[in-house]
Amino acid sequence: MKLSTILLVCAFVFLVCFLIDTLLKAVFPKSKLEKSKNCVRPAKRSATFGVLLTVIPPVVLMRVGFSDRLLAIGCVTAFVFGVILLVAYFSVVIFYDDEKFLYKTLRGKKQEFHYSQIKGQRSLMTRGGIQTILFVADEQIELYSSMQNLNAFLGKAFYKWCEVKGIDSDTVENNPRMFTWFPDPGAETEK
Known about the structure:
Blueprint: H1 2-27, E1 39-40, H2 44-64, H3 69-90, E2 92-96, E3 100-105, E4 110-114, E5 118-126, E6 129-136, E7 139-144, H4 150-165, H5 185-190
Antiparallel strand pairs: 1-2, 2-3, 3-4, 5-6, 6-7
Helix pairs in contact: 2-3
């Protein structure tokens, strides 16, 4: 009885999510770049753990109830962490093609840039990996080594940037293993 109730609740939640997603797609159609398969996103494990941590704790609470306070506090905490992981996963995405790229955030910020607008890049080694800041026009785009397809995007952006600026790519010092493709923007002012 309880298992069938849980399955019905899960099916209802998925149906509501599907209907909301369909409505949002109709209200906010995607641009050509957003339909591209080339994109940079945070690591998939954030989404996986986020979904698990937002689904399992409510199921446990429905099964056990709030009689055990410590378990209830743990479930609520796990649920909050799951929501945080999902927000982090959907917080930023970059879609790109041969001409330009689209930087999109969860807060509704959506900007298209051409590769010629890239001014430079700085990379830092941190405990969590490599953090790189891409300077584009007046924006600073923060990227992390754990992101999916990051090096492919930076490589394509670098070669297109060189092509547009008329620079021989072999003359620019870079380090793809450290996710550093572009020169430091401060290096031009120091010379």
